[in-house]
Write a structure and sequence with these properties.
Elements lengths: L6 E10 L4 E8 L6 E8 L3 E7 L4 E9 L4 E5 L2 E3 L7 H13 L1 E2 L2 E8 L10 E7 L2 E2 L11 E7 L3 H6 L6 H12 L7
Parallel strand pairs: 4-10
Antiparallel strand pairs: 1-2, 2-3, 4-5, 4-7, 5-6, 5-12, 8-11, 9-10
Length: 185
């Protein structure tokens, strides 16, 4: 069986919030011809940053997540702001705002679809090396962030014991490992 694109029949915006829109999109199945409604979330693209210090410490953040109702160990990241024309610009900004660190070098690891069944955005994942603390955090009003560093050698243990369970963080680590997990270029 060959899979084909579905014909878009129309969209209806259901709600509009600061960081996302929810819409009902009507599509026609190429296999059955049925008119089916899907709920989609439109949001700006995201960035996240796997940040490493010169002595191979992971620069991470801990913050409360309302979806899981628990504190999560993650890497810095967030929305690409409307004025930012390059995801790299947003990656540098998010690293600085959420950790107080800046990087000597940042490179793109990969781009992913966070949840293509219902979300229309992409997440751009970066590796930042030579990271050094240069100042204080600049948290958004809805953020309470604790910066933590962990030895890179502990990463597998953090994964095995479930301490890192954020899917997009896990995908970024997979991108990095697929490139050979190099920390220096």
């Amino acid at each position: 069986m060959t899979i084909h694109d579905w014909q878009r029949l129309g969209d209806e915006t259901l709600t509009h919030y600061k960081v996302f829109h929810v819409r009902k999109s009507r599509r026609r199945s190429p296999r059955t011809g049925a008119d089916i409604g899907f709920f989609l979330i439109d949001t700006p693209d995201w960035v996240n940053v796997l940040a490493l210090t010169p002595d191979e410490q992971l620069v991470m953040i801990r913050q409360y997540r309302h979806g899981t109702e628990k504190v999560s160990l993650e890497i810095p990241g967030g929305l690409i702001d409307p004025h930012e024309t390059d995801p790299l610009q947003a990656a540098r900004r998010e690293l600085r705002e959420e950790t107080g660190y800046e990087a000597e070098h940042i490179e793109l690891l990969g781009v992913m679809s966070p949840n293509p069944s219902m979300m229309t955005n992409r997440c751009h994942s970066y590796l930042a090396t030579g990271c050094r603390r240069v100042g204080d955090l600049a948290m958004d009003p809805g953020e309470d962030i604790e910066v933590v560093t962990r030895p890179l050698a502990e990463l597998d243990g953090l994964l095995r014991n479930g301490e890192i369970d954020h899917a997009i963080v896990l995908a970024t680590i997979a991108f990095w490992r697929a490139r050979g997990s190099r920390t220096r270029h």
